[in-house]
């Protein structure tokens, strides 16, 4: 029998985003430890409340930023609504062409 994951929320986010968006690249950062001392987090036992996602996907092609972010929020709406669930979600969403353009800019 497999041991329970130490990061069930991160695992769920990774699974949902991967299934829905088939990302070319996907980075997920659990920043919960940086916010554990904040007043709204007092008494919350979850260690998975604050995340940063960097997603590059063809699914974002032709979508404005707001629509991209709404699609992610929609995937995770239940987890964002639950007690001890996702409290904060920072998103960076790009198409492969936007990512390539950014990489070239960074090399200059």
TrEMBL record:
It comes from the Eukaryota. GO terms for biological process: [4Fe-4S] cluster assembly. Pfam families: BolA (PF01722). GO terms for cellular component: mitochondrial matrix. Belongs to the BolA/IbaG family. This is BolA protein. It comes from Dactylellina haptotyla (strain CBS 200.50) (Nematode-trapping fungus).
